[in-house]
């Protein structure tokens, strides 16, 4: 059987939800959190290892609250994303607090991964279809370097009723290959068929495909990230304490340089996430609906 790994980026999870992992928001009828559903869907799709990218200071709480449960159904490993985990040639800016972004988070897994893998955010719900499509693509292209994939979510299925959101709008050619990701901010619904960026007034069809920071890649990507991280650190301007090494930007640069092909896998699943505090009731309602429709059992098994 082809091994496939799911990398779950969770290094910022404690700071986003309050003091410690125990403050994670329950969204399922039996107290499930979003990551429980992602792990369930990934294992069901065929992924057989989970790597959580976290900080050292939340390891014990994370293992107690999440890791011990997941270990019962799947291999679990931890990678650690830390501000000071940078090449010795560079110094950390004195006022910098946060680590270096999602690219560094995935890079923290180097040495732990030797098989095709997918990457997701810990606090986003992606739906079953995305995991199946990404897994199947990774198995088919397990030996093909620089053949990556991403689920393309219908923009309408990713918006928040509580305010504007940022999305990477995908430009795709006739071969379903990604040609460009257009980072677009403060997107809100205008009509049933059209959204608008309140930043620049640009209208975007609701049927457009959006990237939700879920990627499927082969192990060579870790070397690409390693080399790129060094270049990224070398280009940071003095006094810039917010620069981040981000997966969508990295992927966009690789596309421009024609170093990779990224196949877009359309999915009709609805994305959920808690961008605003007011999103929580809606997200909880959506999970209850999925349980009532029989998509998930409660309590969630496996």
How can the largest sheet be summarized?
Answer: 7 strands, mixed
Percent of residues in beta strands? Answer: 15-25%
Looking at how many chains there are and whether they match, the oligomeric state comes to single chain
Q: SSE order in H/E notation?
A: EHHEHEHEEHEEEEEEEHHEEH
The average pLDDT value, as a whole number, equals 91
Total helical segments: 8
Structural class comes to: alpha/beta
Low-confidence stretches: 16-20
Which range best describes the helical content: under 10%, 10-25%, 25-40%, 40-55%, 55-70% or over 70%? 25-40%
Task: Kindly state the number of beta strands.
Answer: 14
Task: Report on this structure.
The structure is a single chain. By secondary structure, the protein is α/β, with parallel strands linked by helices. Helix content is 29%, strand content 25%. It has eight helices and 14 strands. Helix 2 (34-45) crosses helix 5. It is globular. It starts with a strand and ends in a 10-residue tail after the last helix. The relative contact order is 0.19. Mean pLDDT is 91; it is low at 16-20.
